[in-house]
Specification:
single chain; about 50 residues; mainly alpha
């Protein structure tokens, strides 16, 4: 494979792969199973050492 072939592959399929990864990472916190984990992470700064 030469440079032009690899560049064309990266420009087309590489861009689509990066877009798919970006969209999936942006949507990951909004999935239904992550609600309790997100709530725990949001309230973590308010916990004290004595709270457990």
């Amino acid at each position: 494979m030469d440079y032009n072939t690899l560049r064309h592959l990266a420009d087309s399929w590489g861009l689509l792969a990066m877009l798919a990864i970006f969209v999936s990472l942006c949507a990951w916190p909004f999935r239904p199973g992550a609600r309790s984990r997100n709530r725990d992470a949001a309230t973590l700064i308010f916990k004290d050492d004595n709270d457990g």
